[in-house]
Amino acid sequence: MLSTSVRTKTGNALLLLFSYAVLTFENSLACIWLAYVTVVTFFGAKYVVRHRLPLFATLMLAVLPLLVFKYYGFACAILTDIGLPCSSHSLVVPIGISFFTLQSIGYIIDVYRGKMQPETSLLDHSLFLGFFPQIVAGPINRYSKLMPQIKGNRVFNSQQSVEGLRMLLWGMFLKVVIADRLLLYVDNTVEHLAAADGSALLSMALFYSFQIYSDFAGYSLMAIGTAKILGFDLTDNFRRPYFSISVTDFWHRWHISLSSWLRDYVYISLGGNRCSRWRHYANIVLTFLVSGLWHGANYTFLVWGLLHGVFQCIEKAAGLNNKVASGKLLKALRILVTFIIITLLWVVFRMPTLADVCTVFGRIATITNFHLVMPEKYVLLLLSIALLKDAVDEYRPQYDLFHHRSQWLRWATYVFVGMSIILFGVFDSGQFIYAKF
To answer: Can you give the pTM of this predicted structure?
Structure first.
């Protein structure tokens, strides 16, 4: 019988091979750069402990592919805009590069700060960065959370596997039933922007809010669920963000793994809140400018990040950034106002150019008789079911049908969700939204 350590190493090797096979199927170029970043950070970590020069060199080498593939064209566009010559080339961004680059940077900085020792196993380090459920669109996992699971003895856990299957089922419902149905309407409206009136554009903005949430939260649930079946617990990524009472609260619930990464490696590095008030505000804005730039190489993403930072500064100045809202009516009002702000900011995020953003806001501002321009009416029913589940999870988790004590209710829920996926799912819409980031 194989020893525990041999079984673990064999399992890790098989997982790594499968992970690279999945990534090769999606985008073979990404495998090359994942392997490059893996090797650079594995060997670089051995020299960065408390030494700034090796730290800087390793970070630059690790981030170089991301800078070239994702930001070279944007840098050329900026230079051209200010009248300087630059030869721009269209480059295909390797899938997942933003995610595994951030994960590797976090590891290197933690080693430099003395929070951990450099990894000694290239196999384990490779799996840490290349584990297939997280590689396409996160979550962004920390070394301190994932590596002990990679090195540990994993045994089959039926209860954990059932929970993983539940997550897979609900994640697929959000993705192919909600997100990909709304995608058809949203993309059509954006492509025919010149012909869309204010009602159509406001409807598009509302539907895009739910599309991007369902797409990304759906993927995260599928990734976390798959990992659970394999014996891993990945970082939670969403916590019902559209029930937030402020923009600050929203970022405690949306893309949690990125928010915590930005807090620990950008915001705190800039000084956090241990400085003057205006420096504190500047740190918030700079952090969200980084967030915007990470999401995409475009002026729209920079403005989107800037506005999120500005709104959080306003909330802090007004004392509205706390997570407590007294009174049900006030809380409901704050949730509504926050959702409206987030939805309008998603317009900036979604539009190709700032000129398009101005066009959308201009037409929305001139609406005189709003009417909801929607796709098939049954989509609203399915969307309502998704929102109802979030509301139950937020306020009455004991009534969650996926975990109800009645076996009949649980299985009726599984069958209903599964049949909805089969009957209403869209299976040819392409990759997840966040995969391109």
So the answer is: 0.91
